[in-house]
Design goal:
3-stranded antiparallel β-sheet; 10 strands; Beta Polymerase, domain 3; alpha+beta; Beta Polymerase, domain 2; globular; 5-stranded mixed β-sheet
């Protein structure tokens, strides 16, 4: 099923995200973080991206059931790492992380695409790899050298820190 393209203000998208999360019994906070264009404070957005810190499989099963039964929610895809749904005709992408992958996924899922390419290119030029899966930044010996925070990846790469809204 094709999801219609929408265009809404940041204020509208934030309100829609909050309403969706309230409808499934949770809220924006430590375990449910807005990422993508909302975290980058774009004036106009086309979807809502939420990074979820999966701390408990029972909690995630309940979250899935709550999404299935929530009003105005249509689930298009639900996998171990990603879910795609619409709520009130607004497309949502939900990204599932573990406590270990959360910080790297926060960086990657915030974007922008161009910033991610830039960081991965810098890593590659050093013989390193920045894993989009959230596993972190690895050196040429395959050792994890950063990924406990977004800043740790910037620091390891020797790149000046950028706030999310400075990332394009």
């Amino acid at each position: 099923m094709a999801i219609n393209k929408v265009e809404m203000s940041q204020v509208e998208a934030n309100a829609t995200a909050s309403a969706f999360l309230a409808g499934v019994g949770t809220e924006i906070g430590n375990n449910f973080v807005l990422v993508g264009s909302l975290r980058r404070r774009r004036a106009i957005v086309h979807d809502v991206d939420i990074l979820i810190r999966s701390v408990d499989s029972d909690l995630m099963s309940k979250f899935f059931l709550d999404c299935q039964t929530a009003l105005f929610v249509t689930i298009h895809k639900w996998g171990a790492k990603l879910a795609s749904l619409t709520y009130c005709y607004v497309p949502f992408d939900l990204y599932f992380s573990t406590p270990e992958t959360f910080a790297t996924l926060l960086l990657i899922r915030t974007g922008s695409k161009e910033n991610n390419i830039r960081l991965c290119s810098i890593a590659k030029s050093k013989g390193w790899k920045l894993h989009a899966s959230g596993d972190g930044l690895f050196n040429e010996q395959g050792e994890r050298i950063a990924g406990d925070s977004e800043r740790s990846i910037y620091d390891a790469l020797g790149v000046q820190w950028q706030e999310p809204w400075e990332r394009g």
